[in-house]
Amino acid sequence: MNDRPSFDTGAVPVAGEAPRQHALAGFWFHFSENRGAVVGLAIIAALVLVALFAPLIAPHDPGEQFRDALLAPPAWQQGGSPRFLLGTDAVGRDILSRLIYGSQFSLFVGVVVVGIALAVGVTTGLIAGYFGGFADAMIMRVMDIILSFPSLVLAIVLVAVLGPGLTNAMIAIALILQPHFARLTRAAVLAEKSREYVTAARLAGAGRLRLMFVTILPNCLAPLIVQATLSFSNAILDAAALGFLGMGAQPPTPEWGTMLAEAREFILRAWWVVTFPGLAILITVLAINLVGDGLRDALDPRLKRS
Amino acid sequence: MVQFIVGRLLYLVPTLIGITIVAFGFVRVLPGDPVLLMAGEHGVSPERHAALMAQFGFDRPLWEQYLDYVTGLLQGDLGQSIITKVPIANEFFSLFPATVELSVCAIVVAIVIGIPAGVLAAVKRGSWFDQTSMGIALVGYSMPIFWWGLLLIILFSGILQWTPVSGRISLIYFFEPVTGFMLIDSLLSGEKGAFASAVQHLILPTVVLATIPLAVIARQTRSAMLEVLGEDYVRTARAKGLSPLRVVGMHALRNAMIPVITTIGLQVGVLLAGAILTETIFSWPGIGKWLIDSIFRRDYPAVQGGLLLVALVVMAVNLTVDLLYGLVNPRIRHR
C-alpha cells in the first residue's frame, strides 16, 4: 500500500468528503419526511437513555421485595400507592423499576445479536459472492438448511443443546438470523463484482481482502442496514419469546419476556403484572420497525412510496 | 412443466440431506452421555450401558450410524418416545391435525382480511383508511404474540367470559376422532353444541396466530398493488375506459398477487414458530406444545423426530408454493 502513487491519496479525500456530506443531508431529508420514523427514532433514543441511566431513574432496586405490598395495583387504581407507579408483582417487586432495568437487556440483546449476525453473515456472504464456485455452493446450502427450519423451532432446539440462559439464547438467535445477511450480501456482491470500479481497483493492485471489504462492501450497505433494523426487532421479540418459554434469561432477571412468564399464573387476578412488560416489548419493537420502514424508504429508492 | 418439477425436486436433495444431518447430529452434540439421553435412563450398570450402546448403535462408526438412521427414516422409523414409548411418527401425526386446523384457520383469516385491506389501502393511498390500516398492520407486525394471547385471555375469558381459556373442545363432549380436525369431527359426532364449542375454543388461538401473517400480507399486498398500479398497462386499461373495479380487480390484482403468493408461502414457517407460542398459551394439543413439552421432559428422541418432521413440512409447503407460482406465472416456468 505504501507504493501507491501520491496523486491517489491526495486528491480522493478532498473530492470524497463533500459528496458524502451531501449524501448524508439527502438521506436525512428523505428520512425526516417520514413522521413515524422520526417518532420511532425519538423513542429509541429515550430507551437508550433509560437503559444507560437505569440506576438513577429507577425508584427501587429491581430485585428488592416489598413484603408489605404483594401484587399492589398501579398508582391510579384503587388500593395503589404512588410508591409503586405501575404496581408490584407477586413477590412485591416494583414493576416500573424492573421494566427500566429490563430495557438494558432488550437493547443489549438487539445490539449483540445483530452484531454477531452481521459479522458472520456479511463475511460468509462476501466469501460466497466473491469466490463463487464450490465455496459459494457449500455456504449457500448451509444457509438453505438453516432457513428450512422455522426460526423459533431451531432457536429452541439450539438452546436445548446449549442450555437455557440469555447468552445461549442470543447465540441461537444470531445463528438463525445470519443467513438473511449472508444471502443479501452475496446477492449484492454478485451485482457489484463486475462493475468497472471494482476492475479498476483490481488493476490498481488492490488485494483480495481490500477488494472484498473496502471496495465492494460499502456499496452493498443499503439493504444490509434495512435488514439489520429488522433483525434488531426480531432479536428482541425472539429473546422475549424464549424468556417467556423459560429458555432465555432465567428468573429473577428483569428481562421483559421472563417477567411475562413469571406473571402468567396471575393474569386473571392482576392485569398489570402481565400488561406492562408486554407493552414495553411492543413499544420497543414498534419504534425499531418504524425506523426500519423509514430507513428502507430513504435508502432504497426502488421501494420508496412516491 | 415436468422438467420444472423435477428440477425443483433435485434442488431440494442437498437441503434434505442437510436436514437429516442436523437432526442426526442434534443428539450427538447434547451435553451428557447420548446413550443415556436417548434411553432416558441414568445411573445404569456398565453391562446395561454396553447393551444400550449396542441397541442404539452408538458403538459403531459415525457414518454407519448415520446410514442406519437414514435407512430407518426411509422406512418411516423415527425412533420411540422415552416417556410414552410410542413411535415418534405416530405421536407426531396424532397431534399434527390440531396444529394444521389452527394454522389453516389463521392463514385463511389473514388472507381474507389482509388482501382486501392491502388492496383498498393501495387504491386509496394516503387516505384515512390507508393510514389507519397500515398503522394497525405495523403494530400487528411488531406484536409479541405470546403477550397478545394473554391480553385476549384477560379480556375475553376473564372479564367478558365469552370464550374458554384452553383446549380444543369442552370436556363434556367426548367422541372418537375421525379426521383429527375438531371442527369436522364435532359435526360428524352429531352431538348438540359440540361444533359451537369447538368454534369457541378456536377463536382466540386463531386470532393470535393470524396476527403477524395478517400484518405481513396486508403490507405486502399494498406495496405490490402500488407498484402495479403505476404500470403502463394499468394506465392503458384505464384509458380504454374500463371501470375502476375492473382495472383493479382484473388487471392490477392478478399481477400484484405474484409476490403476495410468495409471501403467503413464507408464512408457513412463521405459523409453525407462532404455533409453539400460541399452543403453549392456550394449552392447544398440537405439535408446537408437544415439541416444547418434549424438550422440558428431556424426551430427546421426540425432539429429534419433531425437528425433522417440522422441517419436512415447511419444505413440502414451500415446494407446493413454488409449483403453484410456476403455474400462476408463466415467465418463471419457461425459464
Automatic annotation (TrEMBL), chain A:
Domain ABC transmembrane type-1: 103-292
Main location: membrane
Transmembrane helix among keywords: yes
Subcellular location: Cell membrane
Annotated family: Belongs to the binding-protein-dependent transport system permease family.
Domain of life of the source: Bacteria
Keywords, sorted A to Z: Cell membrane, Membrane, Peptide transport, Protein transport, Transmembrane, Transmembrane helix, Transport
Record SUPFAM superfamilies: MetI-like
Transmembrane segments: 37-58, 105-132, 152-177, 270-291
Gene3D superfamilies membership: MetI-like
Name the record gives this protein: Dipeptide transport system permease protein
Topology versus the membrane: Multi-pass membrane protein
UniProtKB/TrEMBL annotation, chain B:
Keywords, in A-Z order: Cell membrane, Membrane, Transmembrane, Transmembrane helix, Transport
Subcellular location: Cell membrane
Membrane topology: Multi-pass membrane protein
Boundaries of every ABC transmembrane type-1 domain copy: 96-325
Domain of life: Bacteria
Sequence intervals crossing the membrane: 9-30, 100-123, 135-160, 198-218, 256-282, 302-328
Major localisation: membrane
Family matches, as SUPFAM superfamilies: MetI-like (SSF161098)
Pfam families according to UniProt: BPD_transp_1, BPD_transp_1_N
Family recorded in the similarity comment: Belongs to the binding-protein-dependent transport system permease family.
The protein's name: Dipeptide transport system permease protein
